Amino acid sequence: MRSRRNGHRHRYIPAALAALFALALTHAARADDNPGYDRPGLGFTPLVLRAGDVIWEQGLPDWNRSRDAGVASAQYTTDSLLRVGLGGPLELQLGSSWNRLHQSGAGTDLRNDGRGDSTLGVKFALPASGAFSWGLLGSVEFTDGARGFRNPQRQYLLGADFNWQWNPRNATALYLQDVRAGGRDSLLLALNEGYALTHTLNVYAEAALLRDATTGHGSMAGAGVAWQATPRVQLDASARHRLSGHADEWQAGLGVAVYFGR
């Protein structure tokens, strides 16, 4: 299991997840075929679910803070992702979110909340070849969110994740991402180093270079932890901080992921 996942997709979870989470906590069977989770961090696990298996991944919430022209923005996002195995090398992903935004400073004091845009994605990943594995993720983000949280046009994401499992405890991953919207591209390159402290507790550090189509270049670095509370439930925490250029001052999150396999 690799301990870093996509850090910016927006999703919303219904209250029914609480009952599903309780069911997973009390499930006695081992989940040996769990391929891993896409939370936390940047990127995704380059493995797909078996046909019919399901994983729900949920921010509790995720948070980011930025500043522009003297105005500070803090946004809280209950970021939700449903992953469904399609069979073979393919996995379907569905997502949305619920957001709360607070902007203050320079004579501004605004609060807003609402649902974010919906996403539809497909992951492709072949079985690992020795210590090396890789995967591709393509998705579209629609413009169906609440006013103030929807994008002005559809966004198309293409991501590639490459993983090297050096030994049972240590893994390195490289993530490349291109988000295209309105004929313009925003790029991200992230490097991740993960380490298993125990069979159930993983930590990681990551660094990322950004090139946003609107704001320009920037860089960030951060770290996180993922704990396998049960064979079917993972809890996570992570944080990133801007190093240079145009990027969020801070990004952080708490989350849970639940595996509903056979």
From TrEMBL:
It comes from the Bacteria. Transmembrane segments: none annotated. SUPFAM superfamilies: OMPA-like. The keyword Transport does not apply. Pfam families: Phenol_MetA_deg. Keywords: Signal. Residues 1-31 form the signal peptide. This is Transporter. It comes from Rhodanobacter humi.
